[in-house]
Design goal:
786 residues, alpha+beta, seven-stranded antiparallel beta sheet, 13 helices, 37 strands, disordered N terminus
Length: 786
């Protein structure tokens, strides 16, 4: 007796042989469509598809005169069909592609070779091709999507939910292209019937240009970023995406029916999987008073959404589940099953949108919110191009226009979702000042924010004076490689005893890398400074998140590219719950002696002397210095050997607890810029001025607002003193986004401190001013994830 599989295999092999014989004879003219006895009972559109493909020689019947429509398509006959459909069957084979079970002399080899060459099919890991193996629906559709040059869109669509089945992106593209027979009952992993392949071949050959454009334009990387979700919403999206590519079956609400209808998919996800009480039909689900109605801007991943039918009487006729950025998953007959579409404003889905429903009570999780602050200090328009560089080397560009004397805020989270990145800001017209601010809830425990001015160029040598992994502190070193070649980096950590630990890493082209110092062997429970050297120029920052005596927040600082014998800080305070520390790094081979001068508001300075060992870090707690435990002050450092210096502060500011840090300035200047500043809501901003000279400084300050208006003020800063400007108290600045230009007749030092409560996250930020505008700014740090 023969098994049932053996005759099918034999017939299929004969079908492949017939195709190869036709190919050897040369198909110089279209063949005549055959009439097959076993296709007469098929739906008309399937019969037409069989006629279409056999007339073109893409598929053949068997020697028995039948087409065998329900037999699985075999891998080699699939290759014959696709290479002919896409017109590559006459190409030269790739000499580097061979198979262990299909010799080069076999007539079918060239079709297998060309299909692998063009990405229509893949060989098996063991090197075999298995020409008579049965091909799955997902694999068959994958080759068609590749042949239509939409494999990039399918790859991007896969990124919507990376934990979905590996064929999800292909299923989305194929369903939206209507490549599948609408009444199919084949699961993605099921074997693809020959007649349904015939239908798919005809559809691919007659594909409407607008469908190709729709898929290519809809499923791009930016739109297909994985949304930020809590546990329950993630479960909803995971449940929905697990059914990607399943057939549309009217009345289907579980796998038992072999597929899903629109409201059945919603019922399955929210009712069967998540346990929420759900009505069964779309109109009842939309009208369910137990759940609040939502407008489009209120939608979150996992919310059910509903659409009016075409009757015009306000009846709801369709349902889906929102994913994010206008995309939603649904099951529809026109797409032959479960797929993803776009809720665009001008198209069908946008114009028929009725409402969403808040079935899942869970809100969107708090993320890191990253802002790039831009200031145009001149009286002519300016333009900036922001280029975000991601971990995988991908680059995303964004253009921003700036009116004269204006400050603009770019919310990066509106472009990048759940991404680690670095940023390059190019002034493509005019002059631009750039700064970055971030607000976070680190580990869902440490709320706060930090900020840093940009640096104007990469370097092969960087210094970070501050760093700590003890006492509940976590430290990260961020490395940005803005070049087109990889860079080898060495990070050398220096502790207070002069001992060092070094680690190496490779930073890919146009990418960002993160070194978690807490995870470096030998760096547990350490206070340290860092030197970064690299084979190609990099940009370096440091971010820290801490629990300082019960105060939980974070701060960040850009690295320094040069050491200096002098450093200046405008900010410093030890009163009212503020603690101030000065951090110094001595990476040289020599002991260095340092004189720290503190300038108080009253102009009475004090000098403090200390030393730093070679290759060591030194911490000075200003609160412990006699006479300076309750003072506002600025700082000057003078060292016998070049050093790096930062200042860190921890505080309770009117009930707002946190910390901030900043790098020093190597010298006073007559002009300074601060791109960041905000006074609305629960934000208080201060501009700090230090005059270390022996003569009074006459200072002019221009506060530039969003929209191009500005406010000018003048101040007198006594010699050898520190001066504070509460920006909120300046007339006209009580609720503004503010960029600041400070001009002085005597060299001064400028910083900005801000204390805030941002969406339930409170803390403080501080940044040193920058001395001039630049054509390009770099930021190593940036994050929009949790």
């Amino acid at each position: 007796m023969f098994s049932r599989k053996q005759p099918r295999h034999t017939v299929a092999a004969l079908l492949v042989a017939a195709l190869l014989t036709a190919a050897a004879a040369g198909l110089t003219a279209p063949a005549i469509a055959e009439t097959f006895p076993d296709t007469t009972g098929l739906p008309a559109e399937l019969q037409q598809a069989v006629d279409y493909v056999t007339a073109r020689g893409w598929m053949n019947g068997g020697d028995d005169g039948n087409f065998h429509p329900n037999d699985p398509i075999l891998r080699l006959e699939y290759c014959c069909a696709l290479t002919r459909l896409f017109g590559v069957d006459g190409e030269q084979t790739d000499p580097g592609i061979h198979f262990t079970d299909l010799p080069d002399s076999d007539p079918g080899y060239r079709y297998a070779n060309l299909s692998v060459k063009h990405g229509y099919i893949q060989p098996y890991p063991d090197g075999s091709f298995q020409p008579y193996g049965q091909h799955s629906a997902a694999a068959a559709l994958s080759g068609l999507v590749a042949g239509l040059e939409l494999d990039g869109a399918a790859e991007d669509a896969q990124g919507l939910y990376p934990f979905a089945p590996a064929y999800s992106g292909v299923s989305i593209a194929a369903n939206d292209l209507h490549l599948k027979y609408r009444d199919t009952r084949v699961l993605p992993t099921g074997f693809y019937p020959r007649v349904e392949l015939a239908y798919s071949l005809q559809r691919a050959d007659q594909m409407e240009e607008w469908r190709l454009d729709y898929v290519e334009e809809t499923f791009n990387w930016l739109r297909c970023q994985t949304p930020l979700m809590g546990v329950q919403r993630d479960r909803a999206i995971a449940s929905a995406f697990s059914k990607m590519g399943y057939p549309y079956v009217w009345g289907g609400e579980s796998d038992a029916e072999g597929g899903y209808d629109c409201s059945g998919l919603v019922y399955y996800v929210l009712g069967s999987c998540l346990g929420h009480p759900m009505m069964r039909c779309a109109d009842d689900q939309a009208a369910d008073g137990r759940y609040a109605a939502l407008s489009r801007p209120e939608l979150l991943a996992g919310d059910p959404i509903f659409f009016y039918d075409s009757s015009g009487d306000g009846s709801v006729g369709h349902a889906g589940i929102y994913v994010g950025r206008g995309l939603f998953i649904h099951s529809t007959g026109s797409n032959a099953g479960v797929s993803v579409d776009y809720l665009d404003d001008g198209g069908y889905w946008g114009s028929h949108f009725a409402c969403g429903k808040r079935v899942i009570g869970e809100g969107e999780p708090a993320s890191f919110d990253t802002y790039v602050l831009l200031m145009n200090p001149d009286g002519t328009p300016a333009t900036a191009r922001l280029t975000y560089q991601l971990k995988d080397g991908r680059q995303i560009a964004q253009e921003v226009g700036l009116e004269p004397y204006t400050r603009e805020t770019v919310r990066v989270d509106d472009t990048l979702v759940n991404q680690e990145f670095s940023c390059v800001v190019d002034a493509t017209q005019g002059r631009v000042i750039a700064e970055r601010s971030m607000y976070f809830r680190y580990l869902d425990t440490y709320p706060g924010g930090h900020s840093s001015p940009g640096v104007t160029g990469p370097s092969t040598d960087w210094y970070l004076a501050e760093g700590c992994t003890a006492y509940g502190f976590d430290t990260y070193v961020l490395l940005q490689n803005p070049s087109d070649q990889a860079s080898e980096a060495t990070l050398t950590f220096m502790n207070e005893s002069g001992n060092t630990v070094a680690v190496q890493c490779t930073v890919g082209p146009f990418s960002r890398d993160t070194v978690c110092v807490d995870s470096v062997s030998g760096m547990e429970q350490s206070e340290f400074s860092t030197r970064v050297t690299s084979s190609r120029p990099l940009v370096v920052e440091r971010s820290m998140y801490f629990d300082y005596l019960g105060i939980k927040e974070g701060h960040s600082s850009a690295g320094l590219t040069e050491l200096s014998n002098e450093w200046y800080f405008a900010e410093g305070y030890t009163g009212g719950g503020f603690d101030t520390y000065v951090l110094l790094a001595n990476p040289t081979d020599y002991l260095t002696h340092v004189t720290m001068t503190l300038f108080g508001d009253g102009g009475a300075p004090a000098d403090i002397e200390f030393g730093i060992a070679p290759h060591a870090r030194r911490t000075i707690a200003v609160d412990d210095i006699r006479g300076w435990s309750d003072r506002a002050f600025s700082i000057r450092l003078r060292a016998t050997q070049p050093v790096a210096a930062e200042r860190a502060m921890y505080f309770d500011y009117e009930g707002i607890e946190g910390g901030h840090g900043a790098s020093g300035a190597p010298a006073p200047r007559n002009q300074w810029y601060l791109a960041e500043g905000y006074t609305a809501g629960a934000f208080d901003t201060y501009v700090l001025l230090s005059n270390p000279g022996d003569e009074e400084a006459d200072v002019s300050v221009r506060f530039m607002l969003n929209g191009g208006s500005f406010v000018d003020e003048t101040y007198n800063v006594p010699p050898r003193s520190r001066f504070t400007i509460p920006v909120d108290a300046v007339d006209g600045l009580s609720a503004e986004e503010v960029g600041t230009l400070v001009s002085s007749d005597r060299p001064v030092v400028v910083e900005r401190s801000t204390y805030f409560s941002y969406l339930g996250r409170s803390g403080g930020t501080c940044s040193s001013g920058v001395g001039d505008a630049a054509d390009r700014w770099y930021f190593a740090e940036g994050y929009t994830g949790r």
